[in-house]
Amino acid sequence: MRAAVYQSAGEVVVEDVPDAALREPTDAIVRVVRACICGSDLWAYRGIIDRPPGSRLGHEFIGVVEQVGDDIRTVRAGDFVVAPFQWSDNTCPACRDGIQTRCEHGGTFGAPGTEGGQGEAVRVPEADGTLVVVPVSGSGPHGVDPALYPSLLALSDVAATGLHGAVLSGASEGSTVAVIGDGAVGLCAVLGATKVLGAEQVILMSRHPDRAAIGKEFGATDIVPERGEEGIERVRELTGGLGVRHVVEAVGTPDAWDMAIGMTRAGGRIGAVGVPHTTPQLGIFTPFRQHLTLSFGVAPVRHYLPDLLGRVLADGYDPGRVFDLSLPLERVDEGYSAMSERRSIKTMLEP
Ligand SMILES: [Zn+2]
User: Fold this and answer.
1) Domains and CATH numbers, the chain
2) How many whole angstroms from 240 Cα to the centroid of ligand 1?
3) What would the pLDDT profile of 210-223 be if each residue is shown by its tens digit?
4) Which residues lie near ion ligand 1 (Cβ < 5 Å)?
5) Is the pLDDT of residue 139 over 90?
């Protein structure tokens, strides 16, 4: 089968790899219908973090179950499924606490040494606890309307990760929220804050008109293009000089953290889902003085998936709007360069 393989910074190729095959009775094999490239895939592509040459890529995919192991009870061949970006048994203490991304039997698709989603098929460990079945709803080659593919695919990571940031920020009905980061996760934080949690005012920090436009569609009430101190000042002006009670940090860099801490109102809360690869140290004196609550972690997508799936199928919840480029898997390298050069917000791949 064909799959995307990392070679070195700036070089991703598609090559022949061994076919996905069952290894454990708790596995399933999923034939990929759509996959995509994540902002977090770019850390290695840009040479910011190391990644072993030859490793498989991708952690977001939707597809059709092809084969299941003997212990599998909840999915069967032919089911159309969404996979969260990490697998989990969904039964251990961490999973029962709603932190499936700390599952004792968990792991990440596309992490070095595992199979990735950017390929024709994937072996899914702990398939019963991991995969969420999309009910057959009529048209389309797999009983699912292809017009829903982008939003279903977004559920594998960004839609739930953005929502998680908003949840961690403590946003609720009527809240004012600021979102730092106008990538797919930040945009999905806007969508989650408004449509799921009922936030009233959402300030999106964005200097890219195309991203800001989607942010507005998703419910952002204010767009702030300024960054750093100017950005903080602008957010204060929009919030009566006090700053914001709920801030979502969806970037992970020191600059983004400085802005988050600077714009949060005394007693407020920061929900951070940006992977802090470049934030080895965080100054805690200001958060201490300002009585801030800092809340962060790798989003437990599986926890949010059933609810978000219902919203996509029934309520027109449309996080798939973040996809603005679609390519065949064989042209995955164009997707990486387009996202790295910010010509694409998020790129979908079709095997
Ligand atoms: Zn678990």
Assistant:
1) 2-157+300-350 (3.90.180.10), 160-296 (3.40.50.720)
2) 44
3) 999 999 999 999 99
4) 88-89, 92, 95, 103
5) no
